[in-house]
Please model this.
Amino acid sequence: MIPASGIAASIVAFSLTTGIATAAGAMVALFVLAMIAFAAMSAFSSTWVGRSDMASAADADTAPGDE
Model:
């Protein structure tokens, strides 16, 4: 009879280095996707980054005779 650990080792080829590399790769991919999402949200949503507040503040600083 083959021990259970021998069967598991033959089914799943796993090493510590492969596991760490896989986990690190997944974390990097998640980080990159989050950065892309933040960039897209700030590019396409004026209210998400508060651009409407900045525009009204810029308008308030302009005097009527400065145009």
